[in-house]
Automatic annotation (TrEMBL):
InterPro entries per record: Lcp-like, MPAB/Lcp_cat_dom
Domain ER-bound oxygenase mpaB/mpaB'/Rubber oxygenase catalytic: start-end pairs: 142-345
Protein name: ER-bound oxygenase mpaB/mpaB'/Rubber oxygenase catalytic domain-containing protein
One Pfam family this sequence matches: MPAB_Lcp_cat
Amino acid sequence: MMTGPRFSDSEHFRHFWTKGNGKQLIEFSGAEVSLDEFQKFAPYFYHTDEAGDEVVKEIYFTRQFLEASKEIELFIRNPVSGQDDVPESVRQLFLQTQKIPDWLDYNLLRSGAELCMRCNLDSLISLRDYCLMGGYDFAYLNKPLIITGALKKGAVKRLSETLDFWVNVTRYDALDLHAKGYEFAIKTRMIHSFARLSIKKHYQEWDTENWGEPINSWDMMATYTGFSLVFLHSLHKLGNRFSEEEELGIFHLWKYVGYLLGIPEQLLPDNKKQATEYFYLWTSNQPSADRDSVLLAHSLLNESLENPILKYDFQRENLRYLHICCTWFLLDDEVCKRLQIPDVPLKKAFPLTKRTINRMYDAFVSRKARIRKGDSSQMKVLNDYHNITQRSNFH
């Protein structure tokens, strides 16, 4: 359907890659960007996870949601073999996820997990204020979120779900077959298929030609580039140092998560140079922020005010201010203006102080101690979110 990179001549695309965050990514990664391979990737805008969709049609659409989820949990926790008496769609999906790819390197998985833990709360700041917030600048990417009620559900719930997924796939041995991270990957895959099929069934206005298929493979690649490339760039901007092995480990970890989620392997980058070059091609097909983008951005900003983890209003206001400061520091000014991020006084003070402290912390505290402390801090934040979202009257 698509003839070429539709937004490659637009002002927002040119600015992003010559003056904004894209320029920083090129400098960070040593990428050599061009549109030469656009047609190689473009078909994935209309490509989806058919194996996941078949399971949803056969299991979720033929019984109650909870009953279907329990059945899938059985298959997640117990090996499915070619001989088992299970539905064919389930057999096909689990034979794929249970097959360990030849390229998988457990040492690299471990290094990637250690970097996620070692960077402590900076990891969570990066996910929230750069990866999630920056993603809202791409209007077509947000369409499934808006249609499936992300604004109505609220940012607290959405953040809690993202955090739950991210923490559980980035611990030691989390992605072993039938382990917690593996379980989260399969369940997330089912959610994507369920959402995609529901949108196609119930939302007549979905514009496939312009927006691609809902939750298509190319958009999935971009989302998981957020968890690897953009995340790594954010840690770097906040003054965290990492080894080449840790850096490759991050890409390896998300490549394997992507494999479990049914993203075609040829879309999953191995390093920051490749990831930036792939991301460049994808952004050439995305318009800049629209009204929905601004609503999503402000919902995320105001999450701090709605979230009862902090008891007093002044604490919540202060947390919101700190997140705004980090957003301005991590995202380029044009993106912040498009998303209508409020301008605040002394906005560089907190991130620059944090960067200085990080460099000192790196120099004086052992790697092992930092991994242990980071794991503990991240689990505490996740547990706080769990406690809040599980209160039945929260919404």
